[in-house]
Each structure stands twice: as structure tokens, then as C-alpha cells.
Amino acid sequence: MDADPTVKAGQKTVSVKILSPVQPIPPAPLPGLPFIPVEFDATTVTAYVGQNTFRLAWSIRARAMRAPRTAAVPAPAKNTVTAGKEAA
């Protein structure tokens, strides 16, 4: 994946086939980001040799696409004794 607009589409894109009974709707773009962040559920990646190029290629499939979940903020670490104080 490459956000450079001068790069050819085949060099900067990744296609994911979504196997869903309904067409997923991507979330709204976020300002300042070149890509729309999404999460895929039940993703499978299969390697194969391309018939025309004889190069390694990848097939990426997912069951669903959704907006990313927000991560929980980790609790601040408690102040512990440092290694330097233990040695003293």
C-alpha cells in the first residue's frame, strides 16, 4: 500500500474480497489520513502462483468490514524500583 498519487494503481492497492450477504459500507474518511482505516473479521490469506506471471500472489478474503474499534487506554504503570536502586 502506498499513498503516493504518482504510483500506479497495481503497485499501491490491496484488494480484499468480502464474502458477506450484504454490501458493507466503509466508515467516513478521517481528515489528514490517506487511507480510510477499517477492520476485517474472519480474514483468510491464501498464497498462489499467478497463471500469467508465474509470481507469488495473495488472495485476501474477509467475512465483514467495519470501522476500527477504539482501544482501551492502558492504566499508568505504578512507580517501581529501578535496577540502579536495586544494585545499590
From TrEMBL:
Region called Disordered, residue ranges: 69-88
Protein name: Uncharacterized protein
Species this chain originates from: Streptosporangium canum
